Amino acid sequence: MESTALNTTAWQVPSHKLTEFAERRCRYCLCIPIINEGARFQKQLAEIKRLGLTNLADLLILDGGSTDGSTDPELLKKHGVRSLLVKTGPGKLGAQLRMGYAYALKEGYEGIVTVDGNGKDGVDAVPLFIKALDEGYDMVQGSRYQPGGAAINTPLMRKLAIHLVHVPVIRFKSGFHYTDTTNGFRGYSRRFLLDPRVQPFRDIFVTYELLAYLSVRAPQLGFRTLEVPVRREYPKTGKTPTKISPWKGNLLLLQILFAVMTGKLDPKS
What is the DSSP letter of 121? Predict the structure, then answer.
């Protein structure tokens, strides 16, 4: 499907700056949202290059406004990045994802894979997402709890929140037997994101709302959904690489779950 076929007039996408280093080469893209991830992000880029993943998916960086030098254009070009998008408008992760997904769809990509840029995820699983999209799946969720996956050094509070709260709520609302619903390592088909019943490009998606919403919406609407095993590893010591604070962040996730359960995030038309 060509980008010229899109009607984007109603899309709400934050203002941003775009720098393109290369032309589109692949059917799929790998989107990495980041903000000040420093050496973790640089190490991740090096691993992506080492594994040859830019032969499977074009690499798009969705920056929330990093100031640590990790998005230096020369460094990005060295690691095979195709495009850098820097959000200048309001919003956090949800705004970054809307910015990147809108660009990807306009560029004509058939599917999008997303992985966090903080180095916790085993990017060697990217081919599993590409394979699933090739097989016609529309929502591909990475799960550290699937056979073959690995949950390493997961903080106890995070583990309890996933198993006792987040997974049961998303399972109930979506009708799909997810095992890992907070993991940002996932893939989406073009047809799913462009379905008029989905409408992901709305300003209501500011923080983590879009992740929970799309997890629910895909099975609800009959789109093919799948979990694939991934590795997610937290450091043994030191600060946990996450933007979710222990108390305020978890309260926000509860508020998002309530919005999902009550249909507040669903399109009005």
Answer: B
